[in-house]
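Reviewers of the previous submission asked for a worked example of the structure-prediction workflow described in the proposal, so we include one complete record here. The input consisted solely of the amino acid sequence. No template or homolog information was supplied to the procedure at any stage.
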Amino acid sequence: MLYNLLYPLSDQYSILNIFKYLTFRTGGAIFTALILCFMIGPMIIHWLKDKQHACQPIREDGPESHLKTKQGTPTMGGLMILISLCVSTLLWADWKNTFVWVVLGITIVFSLIGFSDDYLKVSKKNSNGMRGKLKLLLEFSCAFIAVWLITEATVEPTATTLSFPFFKKLSLNLFLFYIPFAMFVIVGSSNAVNLTDGLDGLAIVPVMVVAFVFLIISYVAGHAAFATYLQISYIAGAGELAVFCGALIGAGLGFLWFNAPPAKIFMGDTGSLMLGGALGTISVVTKHEIALAIAGGLFVLETFSVIIQVVSFNLGGRRVFKMAPLHHHFEKMGWPELTVVVRFWIVSIILGLIALSTLKIR
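From that input alone, the workflow returned the following structure tokens.
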């Protein structure tokens, strides 16, 4: 909004020319989201505690310590992320950019799906929320609309091309098959973050790491000279998503203040579904879907641990892990919760650095 209102006046007031620069607006988005999250956080926590009464239902088959330490903690904390993220993005981003509206749309709709799931869990006082098939149907339907809009706003043949990191000119045009592939990326990313969100602070830091990686990727992908130099696909308008990623980092830092162990609030599906969906959508816009799998490798590991556990138990009646997702396996091994969280953060940072290296190592 500030860009659209103030930059046109830069001919009269030269100082307003600063709103032209993505770096300035991205920095503004980070601090705006952070401060806003600090401001509304205590109010949202108090309101959710008052409304939820029994608060977040805890899995009875989970680690025994959770029944004592996490009982009574409110959920739906993703609302403070959503509000801070959306307000900051709308304030600093270019309203004429299609990609910004698509990512914001996925963020809001996926948050509403997650909110409905959380509401059912709290109201029924059990850990079973919305039916899985219905949730996936809604997610895939929204993802289809988002992918269609993205392909329409992207120049052919780049719109349906899958790029491979570490290789100079290796890409594959999937044509119509790109749409279901991109839909899977968005929905898969959304649910992978959701599976990871099981310990205090565990999911939000890797989300910020991936957001930082895609802040860089979206900036260079949307800059013709940088994209040419790095030999990646140039996506006109993708650079504006750096503002969204900055707002996500700021909102994530603000939420971590309240979610750090011991958490005062959980993000719930309200937060995890939208964060994963947003990151997946940005990877589709920038044509760095594989880089998302690298940067978000922690989310991939958590997801595969669940898949392996289910398949192994159904086929052979045996469990590979003491408990899935993977973070609960290490808890069952005797690792303190904080140890699991911090070590997973370290793994996420390493994977983020590897993903960034794909921009140069080709």
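The first strand starts at residue 161 and ends at 163. We consider this example representative of the routine output the project will generate in years two and three.
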